[in-house]
Amino acid sequence: MRLGIEIAVEGSLIGWYTAPMQTIEDELKPTKDPIPDNFATLDEAAEFWDSHDLADYWDETQEVEFEVRIPRRRRVSLATHIGERVAEEARQEGVSIETLVNLWLAERLRIAA
Question: Closest by alpha carbon to 87, among 78, 74, 96?
Fold first, then answer.
């Protein structure tokens, strides 16, 4: 496929230019940095991908499979009046209820050990 450009002045054709589309596309494409073989740290990888678009590297990706192990959680029901007091305390501390309860339980278990 070729790209054609007409050059006209006040409606009069004064020139015609054609070029292969790929040549023009290649000229317009910015050169991309190679993906490092290894990143020394997660911060180094984050810095690279914060300044690069994965879409530019999509042809270099490959499908992988991996397993994610999510820690098991347990739910504990609280009496309404206790839950309300915990929620208020969490608000005052600026943390979530879950975080506050986990901190309290960890402290209590440390003391009991």
Answer: 96
| Separation between Cα atoms, residue 80 and residue 26, nearest integer Å | 66
Cα angle 59, 65, 70; round to 5: 130
CA dihedral 66, 63, 26, 21 (to 10 degrees): -150
Q: Are 4 and 18 in contact (CB under 8 A)?
A: yes
Distance CA 3, CA 83 (A): 70
Among residues 62, 89, 63, 93, the alpha carbon closest in space to that of 78 is found at: 89
Residue 94 Rama label (left phi>0; alpha psi -120 to 50; beta): left
- From residue 39, give the alpha-carbon distance in Å to each of 34, 76, 112: 12, 41, 43
**69-100 residue pLDDT tens:** 888 888 899 999 999 999 999 999 999 999 99
